[in-house]
C-alpha cells in the first residue's frame, strides 16, 4: 500500500504520480553533487564501504561505518564472510588494499586518488557480540592506505551492543534485539554527519520536511532489492534550495519489511537533515535478500564489490536521479 507523508505544501511543490509499483517516483532536486556521503550499520556498513570505494567519484565527502570491515573482506567466499569478516580470524588488510588499487587501475572501481580528500567515521561497540570490534580496527588500518590520518575518526569507547546508536531512542545500550537501535546517550548519526560534512546547525526535533516512499523498482528489478525505498526531503530542499545527499543504509533484519519504518524514522539522521538541507536516501533490501542483508559477500552477484554490482549500481542511479534537478522551482 502506498504511503506518502508529504504535507500539502510539499506535495504541491514536488509533483508526484502513482507508479505501477504503487509508490511515487524518486524526485529530482537541486543538489550539490560534490557533497554526497554514505553511511551504514553492519551489512549496511560493509555496503557503505563498498559504495565509498567503488564509487568514490560520487561519494566524495566520505563514509560512516558502524560495525563494518574492510572493502572486499569476504572476497566472494561465505566462509570468509562468516569467519574473518566477523572478527573470528585475521583479515588480510594489505592484500585487500592491493586488490583495491588493482581494480581501480583496471577501471572496475573509481580511482583511489578520489579518496584522499574524503573523510571516514568508524564506530565499534565495545560490547558488540556480532561483529567483533577488531573488524573495525582492521577497517581503520585499511583506510590508512588511502586517507590522511586527520580525515579518519574512530569511536570505540561505548559499551554498546550490535545496534545503531542514538541518544534518545531504542533499547538499553547493551541489548541485542530487533530493531537493533539502542539508546546509549550518544548521537551517532549526528557525529557521523558532522565529521563528514563539517559544522552543522543544531538538529530539529520538530521536523518540517517529509518522508516519501518511492518506486525503487525503477532502478533495479530483483537482486535482493525491495520494490520501494524511502527518502527524507527537508522543506527547503523541496522548495528548490540547493541541498546535499546522504545515503543511510540499514543493517540485516532492519529493512521496512522487517521493522516497518522504525529505522527510516528513528536512526537519527532526519533531524540533522531537516535543519541542514540534507536529503537522506534510505534504499531498501527486499524479502529475497538473505536475512535482509546487503550483498557484501556475493550472495547476489560475483562482482558485488565492483561498480557493475546490481545493488550498488542501483543505489548510484538513485543518487543520480535525486541530483538530476537544476532549476529552482517557484515557491507557492
Shape: globular
Beta fraction: 15-25%
How many strands? 11
Radius of gyration: 18 Å
Parts with pLDDT < 50 across at least 5 consecutive residues = 1-21, 327-332
Strand order, sheet with most strands: 4-3-2-1-10-11-9-8
Main sheet: strands, sense, barrel: 8 strands, mixed
Order of helices and strands: HEHEHHEHEEEEHEEHEHHHEH
Mean pLDDT: 92
Question: Which key terms come to mind for this protein?
Answer:
3-stranded parallel beta sheet, single chain, alpha/beta, 8-stranded mixed beta sheet, 332 residues
Quick structural overview:
This protein has 11 helices and 11 strands.
Structure description:
Mean pLDDT is 92; it is low at 1-21 and 327-332. The protein has 11 helices and 11 strands. Helix 4 (93-106) packs across helix 5. The relative contact order is 0.20. It has one domain (8-322). With 332 residues, it is of the alpha/beta class. Helix 2 (43-54) links the parallel strand 1 (37-41) and strand 2 (62-66). The protein has an 8-stranded mixed β-sheet with strand order 4-3-2-1-10-11-9-8, sandwiched between helices. A 3-stranded parallel β-sheet has the order 5-7-6, with no helix packed on it.
Task: Write the SSE topology.
Elements: H1 8-13, E1 37-41, H2 43-54, E2 62-66, H3 78-82, H4 93-106, E3 119-123, H5 133-143, E4 152-155, E5 164-166, E6 171-172, E7 181-183, H6 188-197, E8 210-215, E9 228-233, H7 235-238, E10 244-249, H8 256-259, H9 262-266, H10 269-276, E11 278-282, H11 310-322
Helix pairs in contact: 4-5
Amino acid at each position: 500500500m502506498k504511503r506518502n507523508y508529504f504535507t500539502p505544501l510539499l506535495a504541491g511543490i514536488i509533483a508526484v504520480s502513482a507508479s505501477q509499483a504503487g509508490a511515487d517516483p524518486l524526485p529530482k532536486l537541486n543538489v550539490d553533487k560534490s557533497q554526497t556521503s554514505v553511511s551504514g550499520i553492519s551489512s549496511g556498513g560493509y555496503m557503505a564501504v563498498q559504495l565509498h570505494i567503488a564509487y568514490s567519484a560520487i561519494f566524495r565527502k566520505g563514509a560512516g561505518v558502524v560495525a563494518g570491515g574492510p572493502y572486499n573482506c569476504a572476497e566472494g567466499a561465505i566462509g570468509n564472510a562468516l569467519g574473518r569478516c566477523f572478527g573470528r580470524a585475521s583479515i588480510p588488510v594489505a592484500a585487500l588494499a592491493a586488490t583495491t588499487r588493482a581494480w581501480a587501475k583496471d577501471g572496475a572501481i573509481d580511482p583511489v586518488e578520489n579518496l584522499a580528500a574524503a573523510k571516514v567515521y568508524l564506530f565499534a561497540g565495545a560490547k558488540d557480540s556480532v561483529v567483533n570490534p577488531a573488524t573495525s580496527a582492521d577497517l581503520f588500518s585499511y583506510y590508512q592506505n588511502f586517507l590522511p590520518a586527520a580525515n579518519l575518526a574512530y569511536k570505540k569507547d561505548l559499551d554498546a551492543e550490535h545496534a545503531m546508536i542514538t541518544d534518545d531512542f531504542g533499547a538499553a545500550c547493551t541489548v541485542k534485539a530487533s530493531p537493533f537501535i539502542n539508546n546509549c546517550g550518544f548521537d551517532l548519526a549526528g557525529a557521523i554527519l558532522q565529521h563528514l560534512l563539517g559544522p552543522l546547525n543544531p538538529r530539529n526535533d520538530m521536523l518540517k520536511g517529509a518522508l516519501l516512499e518511492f518506486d525503487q523498482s525503477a532502478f533495479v528489478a530483483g537482486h535482493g532489492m525491495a520494490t520501494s525505498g524511502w527518502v527524507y526531503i527537508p522543506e527547503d530542499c523541496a522548495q528548490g534550495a540547493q541541498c546535499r545527499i546522504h545515503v543511510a543504509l540499514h543493517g540485516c533484519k532492519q529493512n521496512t519489511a522487517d521493522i516497518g519504518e522504525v529505522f527510516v524514522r528513528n536512526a537519527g539522521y532526519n533531524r540533522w537533515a531537516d535543519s541542514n538541507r540534507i536529503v537522506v536516501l534510505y534504499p531498501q533490501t527486499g524479502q529475497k535478500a538473505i536475512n535482509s542483508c546487503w550483498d557484501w559477500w556475493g550472495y547476489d552477484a560475483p562482482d558485488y564489490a565492483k561498480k557493475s554490482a546490481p545493488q550498488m549500481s542501483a543505489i548510484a542511479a538513485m543518487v543520480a536521479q535525486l541530483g538530476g534537478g537544476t532549476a529552482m522551482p517557484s515557491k507557492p
